[in-house]
Amino acid sequence: MVNKMTRYILILCLILFSQTQFLTADEEPKLEPITITVQKGENLSLISKKYLEDSNRWSELLKYNKIPNPNLIKPGMTLTIPVFLRKPVMGVASFVVGKVEWNGAGGSGPWTPVKLGQELHAKDQIKTSDKGKVDIQIREVGLIRVFHDSLFEVKGKETPNSAVSVALFKGSLDAKVNKSANKQGDYKLTIVNPSATAGVRGTEFRVELDSKLNSTTSCFEGIVDVNAEGKTVTVTQGMATFVEKGKAPVEPYLIPEAPKLKAE
């Protein structure tokens, strides 16, 4: 009788443990404090733009690190960014090859090499060289692969419930967005470029800019809505649209079959 009761309790504990693991697996990892090293050319203003959710709270950063005067911040100094001041994490660099650089101050300040596993926040920019490439896992959205000779920005969310927005200023990217049952117009991701905006609910697609910043959006799976100059076209699997800067999108046209986007 004791053995049966013991077995029953063990089985019950295992079930409860597995359910707990399943529930917590979907939760976003909690932020931790980070320690940074002040780089040449950085000052308190740039550091606040890079790492603080509200750059106006720089005085709290000084107080936390027991620094009485902002003029004491010098290259080589280490600073701890506490959780209560940190920007929310929008994504993580999951694959890096070649020269890929990061700028956490919206393009101002020095550029530094992107490291595998590096966190990305709203207004962070990524720049790739002629042989550079980076995969970015955007939380709750999917995978974005930024190709060579590109300039990319994680813009973030306007509200907690709005779509994640990113920008492509130069070059090209592929994306694989997790499928969504949301209704048309309720996007999981929007990609802004100099000539158009793409709204995505769940699909695999490519955005390419030419030297004149005209864009081509190709859909490999699912649906992408492309808008420019007040006109929206719906691009379905196996189709693409071209947008000349300052003009509306052309009607979608057929493209050759493309390979599936897989994580490196």
In short:
With 264 residues, this protein is mainly β. Helices cover 15% and strands 39% of the residues. The model is unreliable at 11-29 (pLDDT under 50).
What tags apply to this protein structure?
264 residues, mainly beta, Membrane-bound Lytic Murein Transglycosylase D, Chain A, Jelly Rolls, 2 domains, 16-stranded mixed beta sheet, two-stranded antiparallel ribbon, 3 helices, 39% strand, FecR, LysM domain-containing protein, LysM, LysM_dom_sf, signal
Helices and strands, with pairings:
Elements (H helix, E strand, L loop, with lengths): L1 H24 L8 E4 L6 H8 L6 H7 L13 E4 L9 E7 L2 E4 L8 E2 L5 E2 L3 E5 L4 E6 L3 E5 L4 E6 L7 E7 L1 E6 L11 E4 L4 E13 L5 E14 L2 E6 L2 E5 L9 E2 L10
Mean pLDDT over the residues = 86
Radius of gyration, whole Å: 22 Å
Give the end-to-end Cα distance, rounded to a whole number of Å. 54 Å
Helix content: 10-25%
- Report the CATH C-level class of the largest domain: Mainly Beta
Number of strands: 18
CATH arch. level architecture of the largest domain = Sandwich
* Contiguous runs where pLDDT drops below 50 for at least 5 residues: 11-29
